[in-house]
Each structure stands twice: as C-alpha cells, then as structure tokens.
Amino acid sequence: MDSKTIDQTTIYPLPNESDTSEKNKQNIKLKIADTIALKNEAYHLIYSKYREKGYIKKNINKSWQTQYDKLKETTTFVAMDKDEVVGAVTIIFDSELNLPGDKLYREEISKLRINNSLAEISALGVKKDTRYSLTICVRLLNQAFLYAKGIKQTSHFIVTVNPRHTSFYLKAFLFYKLGEIKEYDKVGGAPAELLVLDLNHIEKILIERPPFHDKTMLKHCKSIKECKSKKEFKSSESQRWLRKN
Asked: CB atoms < 10 A from the CB of 105, how many?
C-alpha cells in the first residue's frame, strides 16, 4: 500500500522554545483571506506543499481547491510575513454538503453531529523554509479555534490524517481518535484516520491551565475568555469581517 496521502494538515515536529517565543510571534500577522487574491495565494501555497510531497498531480492553475472552498461559510486564514502569504488554514463548516470527512467516516461523523456543531480543519500549510514555521502552524490553529468556537459556536473540530501523524495531534493538541483506520480510494487506497477535538474542553483547559497542558502546544494558545478580557476578540478582524458579510 502506498504510504502517501493528502493529509488535511501539514505536520511539524514539536518546537523548541525559540520557535514559539513571543518575539517570533510578533513577526507574523494573521488575517482572513477575504479577497480573491489572498485566497488564490493560499490555494497556491497548499498546492505547492502537496506537489512537493508528491500527493497530487500538476494542474494548469497551480491551485488546490475543493467544492467546499466555494461555500460562503468556508473560511481561510492566512499568515502574512510583511506582504507575503507564508501560511494558511481553511475551516469548513458543516452544511448540506456535509464535511469532506463524511466520504470515509459518514457513520462516525453522523453520530458526532447529534447535539453538536462540527467543522473540519483542512489545508493547513506553511511555506517551505519559512522562519518559525511551527509558530505559524500553532497560531493558525489557535485562530481557527477562536473563530470557530468564539464566533461560529462550533463545538468540535474533525480532521483526517495519515496514521503516521496521529500521535502528534493527540499529544500536541489533545485530539482523540474516532473510528478505525480506513483506505482512502481518492489517493490510491492510502490510510486515513479520523481525529476529533472537543473545543469546549480545550477552552476549559486554556482557562484553567492545568500542569499537563505545559507538555502540549496549548501552552502557546489563547482562550476565548482571555481574548475577550483584553478586548482583542470583540475588535478582531474576524468580527469586522462578519459585520461586513
């Protein structure tokens, strides 16, 4: 079996302190890709990452897009180093089309939907050789959390990944496994695994900061409560974007 698969996220090793310092975080600005130009830069970045790893074939547009990117609720965040897009992540909210993960895990996700609001993390990537790549990755995921839970009232994230990377998600961000490993026909029968993140649980951890959280990437993340107390959340670009739409 071919071990390659189009992971919904790009995996990075656990960071050292220098890669997640406050000083380094200040070099990168995050924003919603609310223009065609920014979205195209994000799609091209992910396309380049997948081509580099041999996950997809070359296409004329040099862009990685799916039908879910056309949905109004789908939201892409980009990380900017000055005027350059160096990172991106897309949040796909549950809709009549369901979620990409339903193609493999319809039964598991259908059960999870009961009394819950779901979104799928997709197309997370950082440009090759970018400084502080792990810092960017963590900040993008943190922003996805703040937006999905704080503004859209999402209760759970899902993501499908190659089983090789499962331990990273479990240890670094406290995802948990749901269902069995399955073969993904779209990428030649490569393995895939469904992971879930309880956003209510994560918010509680970020507020209480229990000792074990220091061993995870959550120690570098902000809670919704913290952002609101500093008036960062109410005046965030996310809120301004919502008011315009």
From this structure: 22
Amino acid at 13: P
Within a domain: 8 = no
Q: Which residues does 241 contact at the CB level (< 8 Å), separation at least 6? A: 32, 34
> Cα(237)–Cα(48) distance, rounded to whole angstroms?
27
- φ/ψ (deg, to 5) at 120: -115, 135
CATH of the domain at 121: 3.40.630.30
Q: Is 109 part of a structural domain of the chain?
A: yes
What would you report as the CA-atom Rg of the chain, rounded to the nearest whole angstrom? Answer: 17
165 phi/psi in degrees, rounded to 5: -105, 0
Amino acid at 104: L
Q: How do beta strands 176-177 and 75-81 pair?
A: unpaired
Burial class (CB in 10 A: 0-12, 13-18, 19+), 11: middle
Q: What is residue 98's predicted lDDT score, i.e. its pLDDT? A: 97
pTM of the model: 0.83
The total of structural domains in the chain comes to 1
For residues 94 and 204, what is the distance between their CA atoms, to the nearest angstrom? 23
CB 144 within 8 A of CB 126: no
Examine residue 92 and state whether it is found in any structural domain, yes or no. Answer: yes
Tell me the C-alpha distance between 67 and 85, whole Å.
Answer: 22
- Residue 143 pLDDT level (bands cut at 50, 70, 90): very high
Note down the domain range covering 238: 18-244
- Is residue 165 within 8 A of residue 50, CB to CB? The reply is no
Whole-number Cα distances in Å, 192 to 8, 51, 181: 10, 19, 6
